[in-house]
Amino acid sequence: MQYFLAIIGGGPAGYTAAEKASKAGKQVVLFEQNALGGTCLNVGCIPTKTLLYSAKQYYNALHADKYGVTAENVAFNYEKMVLRKQKVVRKLVAGIKAKLNNECCTVVNGTAEVVSRTDEQVVVACNGEQYEAENLLICTGSTNFVPPIPGVKDNPNVWDSTMALDSKELPQSIAIVGGGVIGLEFATLYHELGVPVTVIEAMPTILPNLDQDIVHVLREKYEKAGITILTDTKVESIDGQHISTSQGEVDADKILISVGRRANLQGLTALTDLQCERGVCVDDFMRTNLKNVYAAGDVTGKVMLAHVAARQAEVAVGRMLRQIPVQRIAYNAIPSVVYTNPEIASVGIAAGQDCEVRTLPMTYSGRFVAENEGETGLCKMVVDKKTQTVVGVHMIGNPCSEFIAAASFAVRMGYTVPEFQQVVFPHPTVSEILKEVL
Length: 438
Ligand code: NAD
Description:
Blueprint: E1 2-8, H1 12-23, E2 28-32, H2 38-43, H3 45-62, H4 78-99, E3 105-109, E4 112-117, E5 122-126, E6 129-138, E7 142-144, E8 158-159, H5 161-166, E9 174-177, H6 181-192, E10 197-200, H7 212-225, E11 228-230, E12 235-239, E13 242-245, E14 248-251, E15 254-257, E16 261-263, E17 293-295, H8 306-320, E18 336-338, E19 344-348, E20 355-361, H9 366-371, E21 378-384, E22 390-396, H10 404-413, H11 417-421, H12 433-436
The structure holds nicotinamide-adenine-dinucleotide.
Protein backbone atom coordinates (compact mmCIF):
# COMPACT_ATOMS: atom_id res chain seq x y z
CA MET A 1 0.00 0.00 0.00
CA GLN A 2 1.12 3.55 -0.68
CA TYR A 3 0.70 5.59 2.52
CA PHE A 4 0.18 9.34 2.62
CA LEU A 5 2.33 9.61 5.73
CA ALA A 6 4.93 7.48 7.52
CA ILE A 7 5.68 8.57 11.08
CA ILE A 8 8.69 7.34 13.02
CA GLY A 9 8.04 7.60 16.75
CA GLY A 10 4.80 7.30 18.73
CA GLY A 11 5.26 10.00 21.38
CA PRO A 12 3.12 13.15 21.68
CA ALA A 13 4.33 14.40 18.27
CA GLY A 14 3.90 11.07 16.49
CA TYR A 15 0.52 10.06 17.87
CA THR A 16 -0.92 13.57 17.47
CA ALA A 17 0.15 13.61 13.81
CA ALA A 18 -1.23 10.10 13.22
CA GLU A 19 -4.54 11.05 14.75
CA LYS A 20 -4.86 14.28 12.80
CA ALA A 21 -3.86 12.87 9.39
CA SER A 22 -5.93 9.70 9.72
CA LYS A 23 -8.98 11.70 10.85
CA ALA A 24 -8.59 13.67 7.62
CA GLY A 25 -8.97 10.33 5.78
CA LYS A 26 -5.29 9.91 4.87
CA GLN A 27 -3.58 6.53 5.16
CA VAL A 28 -0.94 6.70 7.88
CA VAL A 29 1.64 4.22 9.16
CA LEU A 30 3.24 4.90 12.53
CA PHE A 31 6.33 3.02 13.80
CA GLU A 32 7.10 2.73 17.50
CA GLN A 33 9.77 0.48 18.97
CA ASN A 34 8.59 0.73 22.59
CA ALA A 35 5.18 1.65 23.96
CA LEU A 36 2.96 4.29 22.38
CA GLY A 37 3.11 7.57 24.29
CA GLY A 38 6.88 8.02 24.10
CA THR A 39 9.02 9.51 26.84
CA CYS A 40 6.26 11.78 28.16
CA LEU A 41 3.76 9.05 28.86
CA ASN A 42 6.02 6.14 29.73
CA VAL A 43 9.09 7.58 31.45
CA GLY A 44 8.55 11.32 31.74
CA CYS A 45 5.68 13.73 32.42
CA ILE A 46 2.98 11.27 33.47
CA PRO A 47 4.92 8.86 35.71
CA THR A 48 6.68 11.72 37.50
CA LYS A 49 3.43 13.58 38.08
CA THR A 50 1.80 10.39 39.39
CA LEU A 51 4.59 9.77 41.90
CA LEU A 52 4.72 13.46 42.82
CA TYR A 53 1.01 13.35 43.57
CA SER A 54 1.47 10.37 45.91
CA ALA A 55 4.36 12.15 47.62
CA LYS A 56 2.26 15.30 48.00
CA GLN A 57 -0.55 13.30 49.66
CA TYR A 58 1.93 11.95 52.19
CA TYR A 59 3.61 15.31 52.74
CA ASN A 60 0.28 17.12 53.20
CA ALA A 61 -0.87 14.48 55.70
CA LEU A 62 2.37 14.92 57.63
CA HIS A 63 1.82 18.68 57.76
CA ALA A 64 -1.96 18.55 58.18
CA ASP A 65 -1.76 20.04 61.65
CA LYS A 66 -1.43 23.56 60.27
CA TYR A 67 -4.92 23.15 58.81
CA GLY A 68 -6.33 21.90 62.08
CA VAL A 69 -6.26 18.26 61.08
CA THR A 70 -4.59 15.61 63.20
CA ALA A 71 -3.20 12.65 61.31
CA GLU A 72 -1.39 9.99 63.28
CA ASN A 73 0.88 7.18 62.11
CA VAL A 74 1.19 8.70 58.64
CA ALA A 75 3.16 6.31 56.48
CA PHE A 76 3.63 5.35 52.85
CA ASN A 77 4.38 2.29 50.79
CA TYR A 78 6.70 3.30 47.95
CA GLU A 79 6.26 0.07 46.04
CA LYS A 80 2.50 0.68 46.00
CA MET A 81 3.12 4.18 44.68
CA VAL A 82 5.26 2.77 41.86
CA LEU A 83 2.65 0.12 41.04
CA ARG A 84 -0.04 2.78 40.85
CA LYS A 85 2.19 4.83 38.55
CA GLN A 86 2.48 1.81 36.25
CA LYS A 87 -1.29 1.37 36.27
CA VAL A 88 -1.80 5.03 35.30
CA VAL A 89 0.70 4.69 32.45
CA ARG A 90 -0.92 1.47 31.18
CA LYS A 91 -4.34 3.11 31.17
CA LEU A 92 -3.15 6.13 29.19
CA VAL A 93 -1.15 4.04 26.70
CA ALA A 94 -4.31 2.01 26.09
CA GLY A 95 -6.16 5.30 25.53
CA ILE A 96 -3.72 6.31 22.80
CA LYS A 97 -3.97 2.88 21.19
CA ALA A 98 -7.74 3.30 21.11
CA LYS A 99 -7.43 6.77 19.55
CA LEU A 100 -5.29 5.39 16.73
CA ASN A 101 -7.53 2.42 16.17
CA ASN A 102 -9.19 3.57 12.95
CA GLU A 103 -9.19 2.21 9.44
CA CYS A 104 -6.76 4.85 8.16
CA CYS A 105 -4.05 4.27 10.76
CA THR A 106 -1.60 1.36 10.92
CA VAL A 107 0.60 1.08 14.00
CA VAL A 108 3.73 -1.06 13.62
CA ASN A 109 5.62 -2.11 16.73
CA GLY A 110 9.30 -2.25 15.80
CA THR A 111 12.42 -0.24 15.05
CA ALA A 112 12.06 1.67 11.79
CA GLU A 113 14.85 2.68 9.46
CA VAL A 114 14.57 4.95 6.45
CA VAL A 115 15.78 2.96 3.43
CA SER A 116 15.54 5.46 0.60
CA ARG A 117 13.96 8.73 -0.37
CA THR A 118 13.06 10.67 -3.49
CA ASP A 119 10.98 13.85 -3.80
CA GLU A 120 7.94 11.65 -4.47
CA GLN A 121 8.40 8.80 -2.04
CA VAL A 122 10.04 7.66 1.18
CA VAL A 123 10.67 3.99 1.93
CA VAL A 124 10.85 2.84 5.54
CA ALA A 125 11.82 -0.66 6.68
CA CYS A 126 10.55 -2.24 9.88
CA ASN A 127 10.45 -5.88 11.06
CA GLY A 128 11.68 -7.05 7.62
CA GLU A 129 8.89 -5.28 5.70
CA GLN A 130 9.05 -2.16 3.55
CA TYR A 131 6.54 0.69 3.68
CA GLU A 132 6.17 3.39 1.03
CA ALA A 133 4.81 6.82 1.81
CA GLU A 134 4.43 10.20 0.15
CA ASN A 135 5.58 12.04 3.30
CA LEU A 136 7.78 11.26 6.26
CA LEU A 137 7.43 12.80 9.72
CA ILE A 138 10.39 12.25 12.04
CA CYS A 139 9.28 12.15 15.70
CA THR A 140 12.09 10.10 17.21
CA GLY A 141 12.32 12.24 20.36
CA SER A 142 15.33 12.57 22.61
CA THR A 143 17.43 10.54 25.03
CA ASN A 144 19.06 11.37 28.35
CA PHE A 145 22.43 13.01 27.88
CA VAL A 146 25.23 11.17 29.67
CA PRO A 147 27.99 13.67 30.47
CA PRO A 148 31.58 12.54 30.02
CA ILE A 149 32.27 12.55 33.78
CA PRO A 150 34.71 9.82 34.89
CA GLY A 151 32.88 7.15 36.90
CA VAL A 152 29.39 7.72 35.44
CA LYS A 153 29.39 4.89 32.89
CA ASP A 154 28.59 1.39 34.17
CA ASN A 155 28.24 2.66 37.74
CA PRO A 156 25.27 0.83 39.35
CA ASN A 157 24.78 3.73 41.77
CA VAL A 158 24.26 6.19 38.95
CA TRP A 159 20.66 6.60 37.70
CA ASP A 160 19.05 8.45 34.87
CA SER A 161 15.44 9.56 35.27
CA THR A 162 14.10 6.33 33.73
CA MET A 163 16.00 4.17 36.23
CA ALA A 164 14.84 6.38 39.09
CA LEU A 165 11.23 5.96 37.99
CA ASP A 166 11.60 2.19 37.64
CA SER A 167 13.09 1.57 41.07
CA LYS A 168 10.60 0.08 43.53
CA GLU A 169 12.85 1.13 46.38
CA LEU A 170 13.62 4.61 47.57
CA PRO A 171 17.29 5.53 47.82
CA GLN A 172 18.67 6.14 51.33
CA SER A 173 19.94 9.47 50.07
CA ILE A 174 20.30 11.02 46.64
CA ALA A 175 22.65 13.44 44.91
CA ILE A 176 21.14 15.01 41.82
CA VAL A 177 23.59 16.25 39.20
CA GLY A 178 21.84 19.00 37.21
CA GLY A 179 19.49 21.50 38.85
CA GLY A 180 17.18 21.84 35.84
CA VAL A 181 13.57 20.78 35.46
CA ILE A 182 14.09 17.03 35.88
CA GLY A 183 16.53 17.55 38.76
CA LEU A 184 14.17 19.78 40.74
CA GLU A 185 11.13 17.58 40.16
CA PHE A 186 12.97 14.53 41.48
CA ALA A 187 14.38 16.62 44.35
CA THR A 188 10.77 17.43 45.26
CA LEU A 189 9.66 13.79 45.08
CA TYR A 190 12.47 12.41 47.21
CA HIS A 191 12.46 15.27 49.70
CA GLU A 192 8.73 14.93 50.35
CA LEU A 193 9.25 11.24 51.02
CA GLY A 194 11.96 11.98 53.58
CA VAL A 195 15.06 11.15 51.50
CA PRO A 196 18.05 13.50 52.08
CA VAL A 197 18.66 15.37 48.80
CA THR A 198 21.68 17.25 47.44
CA VAL A 199 21.35 19.12 44.15
CA ILE A 200 24.57 19.88 42.28
CA GLU A 201 24.30 22.52 39.56
CA ALA A 202 27.15 23.78 37.37
CA MET A 203 25.61 27.21 36.75
CA PRO A 204 25.40 29.99 39.38
CA THR A 205 21.70 29.20 39.88
CA ILE A 206 19.27 26.30 39.72
CA LEU A 207 16.68 26.44 36.91
CA PRO A 208 18.92 28.92 35.06
CA ASN A 209 16.44 29.41 32.23
CA LEU A 210 13.67 30.72 34.48
CA ASP A 211 12.91 34.09 36.03
CA GLN A 212 15.32 34.36 38.90
CA ASP A 213 12.95 36.17 41.32
CA ILE A 214 10.69 33.15 41.01
CA VAL A 215 13.57 30.70 41.40
CA HIS A 216 14.73 32.59 44.50
CA VAL A 217 11.41 31.86 46.26
CA LEU A 218 11.79 28.14 45.53
CA ARG A 219 15.42 27.95 46.54
CA GLU A 220 14.79 29.73 49.81
CA LYS A 221 11.95 27.35 50.70
CA TYR A 222 13.84 24.22 49.67
CA GLU A 223 17.01 25.15 51.54
CA LYS A 224 14.98 25.98 54.66
CA ALA A 225 13.29 22.58 54.34
CA GLY A 226 16.68 20.86 54.32
CA ILE A 227 17.50 20.27 50.65
CA THR A 228 21.19 20.97 50.02
CA ILE A 229 21.67 23.03 46.86
CA LEU A 230 25.19 23.49 45.53
CA THR A 231 25.43 25.95 42.65
CA ASP A 232 28.50 27.00 40.66
CA THR A 233 29.62 23.45 41.36
CA LYS A 234 31.15 21.16 38.75
CA VAL A 235 31.22 17.41 39.19
CA GLU A 236 34.79 16.29 38.50
CA SER A 237 34.47 12.55 38.98
CA ILE A 238 32.34 9.87 40.57
CA ASP A 239 33.71 6.83 42.35
CA GLY A 240 30.97 4.43 43.45
CA GLN A 241 28.77 6.50 45.73
CA HIS A 242 31.30 9.27 46.13
CA ILE A 243 31.26 12.48 44.08
CA SER A 244 34.22 14.85 43.80
CA THR A 245 33.11 18.35 42.90
CA SER A 246 34.82 21.70 42.45
CA GLN A 247 33.37 22.68 45.88
CA GLY A 248 34.20 19.52 47.84
CA GLU A 249 33.02 15.94 48.31
CA VAL A 250 29.47 14.59 48.32
CA ASP A 251 28.38 11.05 49.27
CA ALA A 252 25.01 9.57 48.36
CA ASP A 253 23.32 6.19 48.08
CA LYS A 254 22.21 6.98 44.50
CA ILE A 255 23.32 9.64 42.03
CA LEU A 256 20.77 10.92 39.54
CA ILE A 257 22.14 12.48 36.38
CA SER A 258 19.77 15.07 34.87
CA VAL A 259 21.89 17.37 32.75
CA GLY A 260 19.67 17.61 29.70
CA ARG A 261 18.52 15.53 26.78
CA ARG A 262 19.73 15.18 23.19
CA ALA A 263 17.84 14.67 19.94
CA ASN A 264 17.61 11.01 18.88
CA LEU A 265 18.58 10.67 15.21
CA GLN A 266 18.35 6.88 15.12
CA GLY A 267 17.10 5.28 11.87
CA LEU A 268 17.85 8.26 9.65
CA THR A 269 21.27 7.39 8.21
CA ALA A 270 19.86 6.99 4.68
CA LEU A 271 18.84 10.66 4.76
CA THR A 272 22.43 11.72 4.14
CA ASP A 273 21.49 15.29 3.10
CA LEU A 274 19.22 15.94 6.08
CA GLN A 275 20.31 19.16 7.81
CA CYS A 276 20.86 18.74 11.53
CA GLU A 277 22.27 21.01 14.23
CA ARG A 278 21.02 20.50 17.80
CA GLY A 279 18.47 18.24 16.15
CA VAL A 280 16.76 18.00 12.78
CA CYS A 281 16.54 21.56 11.39
CA VAL A 282 13.01 22.65 10.55
CA ASP A 283 11.27 25.82 9.38
CA ASP A 284 8.09 27.34 10.83
CA PHE A 285 6.00 24.64 9.13
CA MET A 286 8.16 21.79 10.48
CA ARG A 287 9.62 21.17 7.01
CA THR A 288 13.20 19.93 6.86
CA ASN A 289 15.51 20.82 3.97
CA LEU A 290 14.28 17.67 2.17
CA LYS A 291 11.00 17.91 0.26
CA ASN A 292 8.32 15.67 1.82
CA VAL A 293 10.35 15.13 5.05
CA TYR A 294 9.09 16.86 8.20
CA ALA A 295 10.13 16.64 11.85
CA ALA A 296 8.34 17.43 15.12
CA GLY A 297 9.04 17.15 18.84
CA ASP A 298 12.27 16.80 20.82
CA VAL A 299 14.13 15.53 17.72
CA THR A 300 14.09 19.11 16.39
CA GLY A 301 16.14 20.17 19.44
CA LYS A 302 13.95 23.27 19.80
CA VAL A 303 11.79 23.33 22.91
CA MET A 304 11.73 19.88 24.52
CA LEU A 305 8.17 19.90 25.87
CA ALA A 306 5.38 17.44 25.11
CA HIS A 307 2.81 20.17 24.38
CA VAL A 308 5.21 21.81 21.93
CA ALA A 309 5.73 18.44 20.23
CA ALA A 310 1.99 17.96 19.82
CA ARG A 311 1.52 21.45 18.40
CA GLN A 312 4.47 21.03 16.03
CA ALA A 313 2.86 17.81 14.79
CA GLU A 314 -0.43 19.60 14.13
CA VAL A 315 1.41 22.27 12.16
CA ALA A 316 3.37 19.66 10.15
CA VAL A 317 0.25 17.71 9.20
CA GLY A 318 -1.65 20.92 8.46
CA ARG A 319 1.12 21.83 6.04
CA MET A 320 1.13 18.40 4.37
CA LEU A 321 -2.63 18.66 3.92
CA ARG A 322 -2.22 22.22 2.58
CA GLN A 323 -4.76 23.38 5.14
CA ILE A 324 -6.00 26.96 5.03
CA PRO A 325 -5.51 29.09 7.06
CA VAL A 326 -1.85 28.18 7.19
CA GLN A 327 -0.79 27.29 10.72
CA ARG A 328 2.36 28.25 12.58
CA ILE A 329 3.48 27.81 16.15
CA ALA A 330 3.42 30.81 18.43
CA TYR A 331 6.76 30.17 20.11
CA ASN A 332 6.31 33.43 22.05
CA ALA A 333 3.32 31.98 23.91
CA ILE A 334 4.41 28.53 25.03
CA PRO A 335 3.65 27.82 28.67
CA SER A 336 6.04 25.80 30.77
CA VAL A 337 5.62 24.32 34.22
CA VAL A 338 8.03 22.95 36.79
CA TYR A 339 6.22 20.56 39.15
CA THR A 340 8.03 21.52 42.29
CA ASN A 341 6.06 22.27 45.47
CA PRO A 342 5.15 25.11 45.05
CA GLU A 343 4.76 24.82 41.31
CA ILE A 344 6.38 27.24 38.89
CA ALA A 345 4.61 28.25 35.70
CA SER A 346 5.60 30.73 33.06
CA VAL A 347 4.91 31.93 29.56
CA GLY A 348 6.49 34.50 27.28
CA ILE A 349 9.50 36.67 27.77
CA ALA A 350 11.39 37.74 30.84
CA ALA A 351 11.69 41.42 31.65
CA GLY A 352 13.61 43.39 29.03
CA GLN A 353 14.56 46.98 28.34
CA ASP A 354 11.30 47.86 26.63
CA CYS A 355 9.15 46.25 29.28
CA GLU A 356 7.74 47.10 32.64
CA VAL A 357 7.22 44.43 35.26
CA ARG A 358 4.28 44.27 37.64
CA THR A 359 4.82 42.01 40.62
CA LEU A 360 2.45 40.83 43.33
CA PRO A 361 2.77 38.28 46.12
CA MET A 362 0.38 35.35 45.72
CA THR A 363 -1.03 36.23 49.14
CA TYR A 364 -3.12 38.90 47.38
CA SER A 365 -5.34 35.98 46.37
CA GLY A 366 -7.85 35.00 49.07
CA ARG A 367 -8.00 31.43 47.84
CA PHE A 368 -4.21 31.17 47.95
CA VAL A 369 -4.15 32.30 51.59
CA ALA A 370 -6.98 29.90 52.47
CA GLU A 371 -5.18 26.89 51.01
CA ASN A 372 -1.47 27.61 51.42
CA GLU A 373 -0.85 28.08 55.12
CA GLY A 374 2.53 29.68 55.76
CA GLU A 375 3.44 29.68 52.04
CA THR A 376 4.61 32.52 49.88
CA GLY A 377 4.39 32.91 46.12
CA LEU A 378 4.87 35.47 43.43
CA CYS A 379 3.21 36.57 40.21
CA LYS A 380 5.16 38.71 37.75
CA MET A 381 3.60 40.16 34.65
CA VAL A 382 5.78 41.58 31.89
CA VAL A 383 4.15 44.32 29.82
CA ASP A 384 5.48 46.04 26.70
CA LYS A 385 5.96 49.70 27.69
CA LYS A 386 4.91 51.16 24.36
CA THR A 387 1.95 48.96 23.41
CA GLN A 388 0.86 47.90 26.92
CA THR A 389 0.66 44.32 25.57
CA VAL A 390 1.08 41.43 27.99
CA VAL A 391 4.25 39.65 26.81
CA GLY A 392 5.16 37.40 29.74
CA VAL A 393 3.86 35.95 33.00
CA HIS A 394 5.98 34.15 35.59
CA MET A 395 4.53 32.60 38.73
CA ILE A 396 5.35 30.46 41.72
CA GLY A 397 2.60 29.20 44.02
CA ASN A 398 0.10 26.35 43.92
CA PRO A 399 -1.76 25.64 41.71
CA CYS A 400 -0.36 28.04 39.09
CA SER A 401 0.12 25.22 36.57
CA GLU A 402 -3.66 25.05 36.32
CA PHE A 403 -4.19 28.63 35.18
CA ILE A 404 -1.02 29.53 33.26
CA ALA A 405 -3.11 28.68 30.16
CA ALA A 406 -5.11 31.89 30.76
CA ALA A 407 -1.87 33.88 30.64
CA SER A 408 -0.74 31.96 27.53
CA PHE A 409 -4.01 32.86 25.88
CA ALA A 410 -3.47 36.56 26.65
CA VAL A 411 0.09 36.47 25.30
CA ARG A 412 -0.94 34.46 22.23
CA MET A 413 -3.79 36.83 21.39
CA GLY A 414 -1.68 39.91 22.09
CA TYR A 415 -4.01 41.25 24.79
CA THR A 416 -3.25 44.70 26.13
CA VAL A 417 -3.58 45.42 29.85
CA PRO A 418 -6.99 47.15 29.39
CA GLU A 419 -8.24 44.17 27.33
CA PHE A 420 -7.05 41.63 29.89
CA GLN A 421 -8.71 43.72 32.63
CA GLN A 422 -12.08 43.06 31.00
CA VAL A 423 -11.78 39.29 31.47
CA VAL A 424 -13.85 37.98 34.39
CA PHE A 425 -12.04 35.48 36.62
CA PRO A 426 -14.04 33.25 38.94
CA HIS A 427 -13.89 34.14 42.63
CA PRO A 428 -12.38 32.82 44.79
CA THR A 429 -9.66 31.24 42.68
CA VAL A 430 -5.91 31.72 42.69
CA SER A 431 -6.19 32.64 39.00
CA GLU A 432 -7.51 36.06 40.10
CA ILE A 433 -3.89 36.97 40.80
CA LEU A 434 -3.55 37.50 37.02
CA LYS A 435 -6.08 40.30 37.25
CA GLU A 436 -4.82 41.70 40.54
CA VAL A 437 -1.30 42.06 39.15
CA LEU A 438 -2.56 44.21 36.27
P1 NAD B 1 17.58 21.02 31.75
O1 NAD B 1 18.24 21.60 30.57
O2 NAD B 1 16.27 21.59 32.20
O3 NAD B 1 18.55 21.12 33.02
C1 NAD B 1 19.82 20.58 33.04
C2 NAD B 1 20.63 21.32 34.09
O4 NAD B 1 21.85 20.65 34.28
C3 NAD B 1 20.94 22.76 33.71
O5 NAD B 1 20.58 23.60 34.77
C4 NAD B 1 22.46 22.74 33.50
O6 NAD B 1 23.10 23.94 33.84
C5 NAD B 1 22.88 21.60 34.42
N1 NAD B 1 24.13 20.92 34.06
C6 NAD B 1 24.56 20.59 32.83
N2 NAD B 1 25.74 19.91 32.91
C7 NAD B 1 26.04 19.80 34.24
C8 NAD B 1 27.08 19.19 34.98
N3 NAD B 1 28.06 18.52 34.37
N4 NAD B 1 27.05 19.29 36.33
C9 NAD B 1 26.03 19.94 36.95
N5 NAD B 1 25.02 20.53 36.30
C10 NAD B 1 25.01 20.45 34.96
O7 NAD B 1 17.48 19.46 31.45
P2 NAD B 1 16.72 18.31 32.25
O8 NAD B 1 16.30 18.77 33.58
O9 NAD B 1 17.61 17.13 32.15
O10 NAD B 1 15.43 18.09 31.37
C11 NAD B 1 15.54 17.64 30.00
C12 NAD B 1 14.42 18.18 29.15
O11 NAD B 1 13.18 17.64 29.56
C13 NAD B 1 14.30 19.69 29.26
O12 NAD B 1 14.16 20.22 27.97
C14 NAD B 1 13.07 19.90 30.07
O13 NAD B 1 12.39 21.09 29.74
C15 NAD B 1 12.23 18.66 29.76
N6 NAD B 1 11.38 18.37 30.92
C16 NAD B 1 10.27 19.13 31.12
C17 NAD B 1 9.49 18.92 32.24
C18 NAD B 1 8.28 19.78 32.46
O14 NAD B 1 7.83 20.42 31.53
N7 NAD B 1 7.74 19.84 33.67
C19 NAD B 1 9.82 17.96 33.16
C20 NAD B 1 10.99 17.21 32.95
C21 NAD B 1 11.75 17.44 31.81
